[in-house]
Design brief:
It is built from 10 helices and 5 strands. By secondary structure, it is an alpha+beta fold.
């Protein structure tokens, strides 16, 4: 199994850039450039990224006390936060989805499909309230990932000394962590959100290094158990960043 699909999604940064644009923290030009870096050419109902952004702005309830933009990730051991059997749930792929909170309890679910040269978006409306996420704080999610990091570091040290084709696994981890963070986050992301997202990047890089780059699958049961914590940390970091944009907009 290719690990990256389970521990990384460009939707993490896409969701934060979208929120930064909705709250006028980032310009349209900067947002379009960042989203293009993250996904390539965007297709939305036969139109491009501009149409998607305009629909997002028209639909978002920026006064909502809940995060107006929310990230949904899912995978083994972790159900998606969508209604089972709904059109959005049926369309959901491994990359996850973005939820935009609308007025009146409505939610809009943006489901991407990534191709080699771009991303295709589908838009769904949910009239019923979506299942509640775990709503972990960045501190709680970071604590879980901190323990996961300690465990994963021991595993990679045990695996790294016996492979001549990858003599410096820690260097590989650093390179992969840089990849996960590209093209970076918009302005105004809280330090606590940035910290938990950076830790998620590093743990994901460790998991990928051991399983895919070192080709050592003897630790798969332990490493696979980390996937849920990585995804949860990404969702918690996005929610915190979005909420801080809202607080800043009304202060």
């Amino acid at each position: 199994m290719y690990t990256r699909a389970e521990v990384y999604s460009p939707l993490q940064n896409t969701a934060i850039w979208l929120a930064a644009w909705l709250y006028s923290v980032e310009s349209t030009d900067e947002t379009v450039a960042a989203l293009t870096d993250l996904g390539g050419r965007h297709s939305y109902g036969g139109q491009g990224l501009a149409a998607l952004l305009l629909d997002a702005r028209a639909s978002a309830d920026l006064s909502s006390h809940e995060p107006v933009v929310r990230l949904i990730l899912w995978g083994p051991g972790q159900a998606a936060g969508l209604h089972a059997g709904s059109a959005a749930a049926e369309a959901l792929g491994p990359a996850g989805a973005i939820v935009i909170k609308a007025a009146g309890g409505f939610s809009h679910v943006l489901v991407p499909r990534y191709w080699d040269d771009g991303v295709e978006w589908r838009w769904f409306e949910e009239k019923k309230r979506l299942p509640e996420p775990s709503w972990l704080s960045p501190g709680e999610a970071d604590s879980l990932l901190s323990r996961a990091t300690e465990q994963a570091a021991v595993l990679i040290e045990a695996a790294g000394g016996t492979r001549s084709d990858l003599p410096n696994p820690r260097l590989t981890v650093g390179t992969l962590a840089d990849f996960y963070d590209t093209p970076g986050l918009p302005r105004g992301v809280t330090p606590r959100a940035a910290k938990v997202l950076a830790r998620a990047d590093r743990v994901a890089a460790i998991v990928e290094t051991v399983t895919d780059r070192l080709g050592d699958h003897s630790y798969d049961p332990q490493l696979f158990a980390l996937w849920r914590h990585i995804r949860t940390a990404r969702m918690a970091g996005v929610a915190d960043a979005v909420q801080d944009y809202r607080r800043a907009s009304i202060s």
